[in-house]
Design brief:
The complex is a heterodimer.
Chain A lengths: L78 H11 L3 H4 E7 L2 E6 L4 H10 L7 E9 L8 E9 L4 E9 L5 E3 L8 H12 L2 E3 L29 E3 L2 E3 L10
Chain B lengths: L11 E4 L2 E4 L6 H7 L6 E6 L11 E7 L2 E8 L7 H4 L8 H5 L7 H16 L5 H29 L3 H22 L8 E2 L2 E2 L7 H24 L2 H7 L7 H6 L5 H6 L5 H4 L20 H25 L18 E4 L2 E4 L1 H10 L1 H13 L6 E9 L2 E9 L7 E5 L1 H5 L3 H5 L4 H11 L3 H5 L1
Antiparallel strand pairs in B: 1-2, 3-4, 4-5, 6-7, 8-9, 10-11, 11-12
Helix pairs in contact in B: 4-5, 5-6, 5-12, 5-17, 6-7, 7-12, 12-17, 13-14
Classes of the chains: A alpha/beta, B alpha+beta.
């Protein structure tokens, strides 16, 4: 605190004599204190607390960005065999796959978008792979966590070998183009339309990429993280409760 | 009557209300005279508010006479933003939204989501909770198939099938109400286990229910299986083969009716399904009749599983023994419905300050789930129900996506309908058994 020191506070007339303003110790540190004075005790560390020490949940803790680390061989289970077969079926494997992640018993290949069609075709057609079924196409918006924030996520199923694999393609929001899988997996048709509708990922080569969930003239892509949920405050017994996306966040 | 034409524009005449144009005439008569098919080609808009389209489904059919030459399906009329909404609720609250997605199979929605959260947390529900989940899901499979039979029958004009189907489904809902307190939208299966234990008299009630269901199923056979109108409306209608199913992602009874015995309960067992003795019914015709046969056979198989669960149920916890995840209060049914038990309220309000803080934190803030993503599947009455759940380490889901079999299977409508009669479109859509709440989410 800069300035001429603690300000004089008015003393109430009925104040007890021992609480006069002149007796109150100033809380500011004197800048001209001698260097051999004892250093002030650093805050924190009480009761063995680490981190911010906030256990209330109200402190708006900042979480660290998270990322699943790339996996090293052996991946475990059938994953090694699968990746070997895919490497044999798709010679450009090292250029196509930026990361292999194994987490919670699931194999994820992070694929560069130029190679998505090639990888998917190899997975579908390879005799040792046989991923006949494209179970699911969806999107995830990693706003603030990944510069290529829009992820198009594919879950493929091999009915022959009873295996599953996840492909993930990351694109930036400024250039949200991903090749369409409809020629390989016709089931991707509506699912890509849904992902386009809700995330704004543009699937190049899709026969009719139009909105499917929202009305045709809707503005914006609602599942993106920077798209608000919307809602109006609700009055309840005289008090006003804000809409869900404006309430206090604990995480 | 053709009015004299005046250039390229329709003839008009002034009136006291303004100029009135006569839109017949012009060169339109010449156009329709040339086209011999035009008096037969119609574009027919069915729905979204049509009693025969299984909910708010819109079909745009191009017809030549009675034959369908093109069919488009328009969905999205029941989009409620469930996947967006759960991103603003904590992990436990999300079940109350997701149970409403496919409102005819709520236990499947809740279970697949809870299993995903448990995999992210690295925990497993206790054995009794897993058995209760199996019990509820198999009873739910029956109630869902009853609605399929009821609505499908109604759409084909078999009104007794409708009344019988809804009567049988009411019996299922009665059992759900006894166990969960609610007939639909239960929020009974939660991350970590189930909301509360079964009531004391569950065994007798459910065994009585099984008897009722057997009687009703025999009634279906007596009423419909040999009924010529029912047979002729379904046989060779809405055909789709195994290749078509897999290309279009169609799973569940449709795929099994085409001949592939693909049932996730057998192929990728979860919740101990590998230990139950049941068959996967299949048929080889791939038409609406096969789907009828397969679904009715599945109901018999589900009853077998329910009986085995009842034989196996042993006392034990129904929620993980982790006070940082399990809901702090035991729920109980009071005179005004389901709520916190009186003992718990007494404990936190009068007994223990720490318990009150714990209750407050867990109920308002919720628990944290380690960052990561999983994709979990169950075999719902309509096919592979998958949940892609992403956590960023917080107290709310970062992203929940449901791979809804209704949504995916409806893509087969055009394949099943084109080339057939317009009346068969109804039978085909009914045999897909889409639930628009799940399709549009």
């Amino acid at each position: 605190m800069s300035g001429p020191g603690p300000t004089e506070r008015p003393v109430p007339a009925d104040a007890a004599p021992e609480q006069r303003a002149a007796d109150i110790q100033p809380l500011t540190v004197d800048p001209g204190a001698s260097p051999d004075a004892p250093a002030p005790i650093a805050p924190g560390g009480m009761f063995g607390v680490t981190g911010s020490g906030d256990t209330t949940g109200f402190g708006r803790l900042k979480r660290q960005p998270w990322e699943v680390p790339g996996a090293e061989r052996p991946f475990g289970g059938y994953f090694d065999e699968l990746v070997d077969a895919l490497q044999a079926a798709y010679p450009d494997f090292d250029a196509a796959v930026s990361k292999i992640a194994v987490d919670r018993g699931e194999l994820t290949l992070h694929v560069r978008r130029e190679h998505l069609l090639g990888i998917a075709a190899a997975l579908r057609n390879g005799a040792a792979l046989r991923f006949e079924l494209c179970s699911s196409v969806s999107g995830v918006d990693y706003l603030g966590l990944d510069p290529e924030r829009l992820h198009s996520v594919y879950h493929l199923t091999s009915m022959t070998y009873r295996r599953r694999i996840r492909l993930e393609v990351a694109v930036p929001a400024e250039d949200p183009h991903v090749p369409s899988l409809t020629a390989l997996y016709p089931t991707a048709d509506w699912q890509e339309r849904e992902t386009y509708d809700l995330f704004g990922i543009v699937y190049d080569g899709h026969p009719a990429l139009t909105r499917i969930m929202m009305p045709d003239d809707w503005d914006g892509h609602p599942q993106r993280k920077d798209y608000p949920l919307g809602g109006i405050p609700v009055q309840y017994k005289g008090a006003t409760i804000p809409p869900p996306d404006e309430r206090r966040r604990y995480s | 009557m053709s009015a004299p034409t005046d250039g390229p524009y329709a003839p008009s005449r002034p009136t006291t209300e303004g100029r009135v144009y006569n839109l017949t005439g012009g060169d339109f008569d010449a156009v329709i005279d040339d086209d011999t098919l035009s008096d037969q080609r119609i574009v027919l808009n069915m729905g979204p508010q049509h009693p025969s389209t299984h909910g708010v489904l819109r079909l745009v059919l191009e017809l030549e006479g009675e034959t369908v030459t093109d069919a488009r399906v328009v969905v999205g009329y029941l989009h409620t933003g469930i996947e967006k909404n759960v991103e603003f609720r904590n992990w436990t609250q999300a079940t109350s939204f997701l149970t409403r997605a496919d409102y005819l199979s709520p236990f499947f929605n809740e279970t697949v989501y809870s299993m995903s959260v448990e995999r992210l947390l690295g925990i497993e529900a206790p054995p009794r909770a897993q058995l209760i989940r199996v019990l509820m899901m198999e009873m739910n499979r029956l109630s869902s198939h009853w609605v399929w039979l009821a609505t499908g029958g109604m759409e084909l004009g078999a009104l007794t099938a409708m009344t019988n189907g809804f009567r049988a489904r009411e019996r299922c809902l009665d059992v759900f109400e006894m166990i969960t307190g609610l007939r639909m939208n239960h929020q009974y299966v939660r991350p970590g286990g189930v909301a509360q234990d079964l009531p004391d008299d569950y065994d007798d009630t459910i065994r009585g229910w099984i008897k009722e269901m057997r009687t009703e199923l025999v009634g279906v056979d007596k009423l419909l299986r040999g009924q010529p109108i029912w047979v002729n409306r379904l046989k060779d209608v809405g055909w789709i083969g195994v290749e078509g199913c897999i290309a279009l992602g169609i799973t569940g009874p449709l795929l099994r009716a085409a001949g592939l015995p693909w049932d996730l309960r057998k192929t990728e067992p979860y919740l101990g399904y590998e230990t139950f003795d049941f068959e996967v019914p299949t048929d080889d015709r791939g038409d609406s009749w096969s789907r009828f046969v397969v679904r009715v056979a599945e109901m018999w198989e589900s009853l077998k599983i329910v009986e085995q669960v009842l034989d196996r149920l042993e006392p034990g916890p129904t929620m993980v023994d982790d006070p940082k995840i399990a809901w702090p209060a035991k729920l109980s049914i009071g005179p005004d419905g389901l709520g916190n038990s009186l003992e718990h309220v007494q404990h936190i309000m009068g007994g223990s300050m720490e318990a009150l803080i714990h209750h407050f934190k867990l109920v308002t803030e919720g628990f944290r789930v380690p960052a990561g993503q999983v994709y979990t599947t169950v075999e719902s009455p309509r096919g592979e129900l998958g949940a892609h759940v992403v956590s960023d380490g917080g107290t709310r889901p970062y992203r929940v996506h449901f791979r809804e079999p209704s949504f995916i299977n409806l893509q087969g409508t055009a394949t099943m309908s084109i080339g057939g009669m317009v009346a068969d479109v109804i039978a085909s859509v009914a045999s897909i058994d889409p639930v628009m709440g799940g399709c549009d989410r």
